[in-house]
Design brief:
With about 130 residues, this protein is mainly alpha-helical. The chain has a single domain, classed as Arc Repressor Mutant, subunit A. About 60% of the residues lie in helices and about 10% in strands. It contains seven helices and three strands; from the N terminus they run H-H-E-H-H-E-E-H-H-H. The protein has helices at about 10-15, 20-30, 40-45, 50-65, 85-100, 100-105, 110-120; strands spanning about 35-40, 65-70, 75-80. It has a three-stranded antiparallel beta sheet. Strand 2 and strand 3 (about 75-80) form a beta hairpin. Helix 1 (about 10-15) packs across helix 5 (about 85-100) and helix 3 (about 40-45) packs across helix 4 (about 50-65).
């Protein structure tokens, strides 16, 4: 079982901060390049997401107190956790991801995504022409 190979703190960090595999991959890229600031366009290119999805992922990670936001021509995000404990957990997750990427990826619960996709199907969008 892959979870047996992953420490409980890393499992807890991934469960709390990565809703999808794409979000996990983006988070790992952001942690790995802590001195870089990201906008939605760069994040989208890094993981192969639509820009709107990358923006949503960045907003989620910022709301989780993992990213600092700078306002300028574009919103820019940089890895800067709000607490030393959160920083240490993120770095531990990155190290585990480097050693066992498949085990860490399997921690992202696909059934949660299915439920979220189902719920999102009923959301009213302002850009919908219907």
């Amino acid at each position: 079982m892959p979870q047996a190979n992953v420490s409980p703190p890393v499992r807890a960090f991934v469960a709390a901060h990565a809703r999808t595999l794409d979000e996990l991959q983006l988070l790992m890229a952001i942690i790995q390049s802590a001195d870089r600031s990201w906008d939605a366009s760069a994040a989208a290119r890094e993981v192969g997401l639509a820009e709107a999805d990358a923006r949503a992922a960045l907003e989620h990670l910022a709301a989780c107190n993992l990213l600092d936001i700078r306002i300028g021509e574009n919103l820019r995000y940089q890895f800067r956790p709000g607490t030393p404990q959160l920083r240490e957990a993120a770095l531990s997750a990155l190290e585990a991801y480097r050693q066992r990427p498949l085990d860490i990826a399997r921690l992202v619960q696909p059934e949660h995504r299915s439920l979220r996709d189902f719920a999102d199907a009923f959301r009213i969008r302002h850009d919908d022409d219907r």
